[in-house]
């Protein structure tokens, strides 16, 4: 029974609303005016992961949304905290991941006359968010909380924002009023109805696939988010159609599957005549679906939750809907009149032959132990150590230029949603936040980050957060002394009054990143040879405790800008 004399303030009412909506974790940085909101949430059983910087917390919340399918909740203080948090909101939007940022804001009566941390936060967030709400009175809190949470996951997921002014956080209602507000707001929530795509569209899709000479199934992180792995595997295996995952689609079907076209990517996209693309945008990552990478006559069948996405790309056939549901419908339609290309089909043979060739070429490079380390040698050792762990596979976090490029082709993904990388925006600095999100969302899995030294140092201090919560995260830093590595400037770029300054790409050579971890009581390793790296990995993987392995890489290995050289 509600106590009519006990009072509930805005902080507690937000915590109660979050709890009622099923929120289990929050990420953020506390301070005026939201400290009590964090404490109240913890008291109700929500785990609060306290960060050093809202940017990292925001990246964590975005990845948590992707991994769990529930909005990652980010809590920030007013103006500057909110602005730092925008990194997380925008990254969530770019990747189509659900996130809710809740920021305190200044007193409503003092807005416009220079209050402490004053900013029109609703306006500031607008370009980056899917939906925003401001609770201008305590009575609006439960509805606002449910609205932002529901919008974050509706349709194409994205970042949403809730603004809570200081005065509203301090307003009170009785406990019975609070209960009524919560119940009323709950009754107004409408579950999202995803309209099923028509049967005739499904038939068209199947007919296109059936009549194709060189069909391909491409899937991305939208399919991973939709948990479409079983449906996709069934489709691939019943039809014998080769598949190509995008970087974060890797693992939905194991990279080691015989129909994987990953190692024959150029051939697969260059020569396919029908491509079924599931939960992946035809953006820069897929060369806009255009020549010269794709054939000009390729027919695209796009499966996407977003109607706008399909309208933008103008595919041959668009199927709007949830990836899992749509692929299941396709499977059902095929079941009545099955077809399978078979291993001897010329297209399947060509892909398989090319993939095998490329894999053996790569292996020939990889088996050589190169010291001082290039990128390949340590990556192979890490790959083998990860494979040695078996199932459940660790979640791999990867960022950097060469480090991420080499990692994408060398490291092997065998389970769904076990790869987090720089994503649609190529965002650097996501690593530590993603590690914390992964360890929180999947407590049974080890988390292994393979990071360039630049990516790592965006948020290196969050290693303290790893230690504080004792998370099973092993961060491997490819230390080549800078962004892209050593100073690669041409003589005409090294001139002028500041020419004796280090290059804009350079960091202190031989930086002791492992000591940063040791400073907080975690485990640090400095390694420069295959034996040292193997032994550090064995120890760190079995300890399942926070560790940094600082790997010395030749500063002139790799290429400037990695794979994106032509753009820099
Ligand atoms: P990738 O980087 O792996 O290519 P993208 O982020 O470009 O992936 O594309 C993901 C796509 O998945 C987005 O267009 C998004 O609208 C879509 N999507 C998100 N959730 C779902 C879902 N449940 N079902 C189908 N598509 C989805
Ligand atoms: Mg570097």
Keywords, please?
Rossmann fold; binds magnesium ion; six-stranded parallel β-sheet; binds adenosine-5'-diphosphate; 16% strand; 568 residues; alpha/beta
Structure summary:
This protein is α/β, with parallel strands linked by helices and 568 residues long. The protein folds into three domains: 7-188, Thiamin diphosphate (ThDP)-binding fold, Pyr/PP domains (Rossmann fold, 3-Layer(aba) Sandwich), CATH 3.40.50.970; 199-354, Rossmann fold; 368-567, Rossmann fold (3-Layer(aba) Sandwich), CATH 3.40.50. The chain contains 22 helices and 19 strands.
CATH homologous superfamily grouping of the largest domain: Thiamin diphosphate (ThDP)-binding fold, Pyr/PP domains
How many strands in all?
19
| Hetero groups | adenosine-5'-diphosphate, magnesium ion
Question: N-to-C terminal Cα separation, in Å?
Answer: 65 Å
CATH fold description of the largest domain:
Rossmann fold
Whole-number radius of gyration? 25 Å
Determine the oligomeric state from the structure: single chain
CATH hierarchy, class of the largest domain: Alpha Beta
Morphology: globular
Structural class: alpha/beta
Beta-strand percentage range: 15-25%
Percentage of helical residues? 40-55%
Mean pLDDT figure: 96
Q: Please name the CATH architecture of the largest domain.
A: 3-Layer(aba) Sandwich
Query: What does the main sheet amount to?
Result: 6 strands, parallel
Number of structural domains: 3
Low-confidence residue ranges:
none
């Amino acid at each position: 029974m509600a106590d009519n004399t006990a009072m509930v303030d805005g902080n507690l009412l937000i915590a109660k609303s979050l709890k009622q909506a099923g929120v289990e974790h929050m990420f953020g940085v506390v301070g005026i005016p939201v400290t009590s909101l964090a404490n109240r949430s913890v008291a109700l059983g929500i785990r609060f992961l306290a960060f050093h910087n809202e940017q990292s917390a925001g990246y964590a919340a975005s990845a948590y949304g992707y991994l769990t399918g529930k909005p990652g909740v980010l809590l920030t203080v007013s103006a500057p905290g909110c602005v730092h948090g925008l990194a997380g909101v925008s990254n969530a939007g770019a990747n189509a991941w659900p996130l809710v940022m809740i920021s305190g804001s200044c007193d409503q009566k003092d807005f416009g006359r220079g209050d402490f941390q004053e900013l029109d936060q609703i306006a500031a967030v607008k370009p980056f968010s899917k939906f925003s709400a401001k609770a201008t009175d305590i009575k609006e809190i439960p509805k606002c909380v449910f609205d932002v949470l529901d919008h974050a996951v509706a349709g194409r997921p994205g970042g949403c924002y809730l603004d809570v002014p200081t005065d509203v956080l301090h307003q009170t209602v009785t406990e019975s009023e609070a209960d009524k507000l919560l119940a009323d707001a709950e009754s107004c929530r409408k579950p999202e109805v995803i309209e099923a795509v028509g049967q005739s569209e499904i038939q068209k899709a199947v007919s296109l696939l059936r009549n194709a000479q060189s069909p391909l199934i491409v899937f991305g992180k939208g399919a991973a988010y939709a948990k479409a792995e079983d449906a996709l595997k069934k489709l691939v295996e019943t039809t014998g159609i080769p598949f190509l995952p995008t970087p974060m689609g890797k693992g939905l079907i194991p990279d080691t599957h015989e129909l994987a076209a990953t190692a024959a990517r150029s051939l697969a996209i260059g020569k396919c005549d029908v491509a079924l693309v599931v939960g992946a945008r035809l953006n820069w990552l897929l060369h806009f679906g255009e020549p010269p990478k794709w054939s000009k006559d390729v027919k695209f069948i796009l499966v996407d939750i977003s109607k706008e996405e399909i309208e933008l790309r103008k595919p041959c056939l668009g199927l709007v809907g949830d990836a899992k549901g749509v692929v299941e419908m396709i499977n059902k339609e095929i079941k009545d009149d099955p077809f399978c290309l078979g291993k001897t089909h010329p297209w399947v043979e060509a892909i398989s032959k090319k993939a095998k060739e490329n894999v053996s070429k790569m292996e020939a490079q990889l088996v050589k132990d190169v010291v001082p380390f290039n990128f390949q040698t340590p990556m192979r050792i890490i790959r083998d150590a990860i494979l040695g762990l078996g199932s459940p596979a660790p979640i791999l976090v990867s960022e950097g230029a060469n480090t991420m490029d080499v990692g994408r082709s060398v490291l092997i993904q065998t389970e769904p949603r076990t790869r987090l990388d720089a994503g649609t925006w190529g965002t650097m600095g996501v690593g530590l936040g993603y590690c914390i999100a992964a360890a929180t969302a999947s407590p049974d899995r080890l988390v292994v980050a393979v990071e360039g030294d630049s990516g790592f140092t965006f948020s290196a201090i969050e290693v303290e957060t790893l230690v504080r919560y004792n998370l099973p995260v092993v961060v491997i830093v490819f230390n080549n002394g800078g962004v892209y590595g050593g100073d690669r400037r041409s003589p005409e770029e090294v001139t002028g009054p500041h020419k004796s300054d280090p290059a804009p790409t350079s960091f202190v050579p031989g930086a002791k990143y492992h000591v940063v971890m040791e400073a907080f009581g975690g485990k640090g390793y400095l390694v420069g040879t295959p034996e040292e790296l193997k032994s550090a990995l064995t120890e760190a993987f079995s300890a399942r405790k926070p560790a940094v392995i600082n790997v010395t890489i030749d500063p002139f290995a790799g290429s400037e800008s990695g794979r994106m050289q032509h753009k820099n």
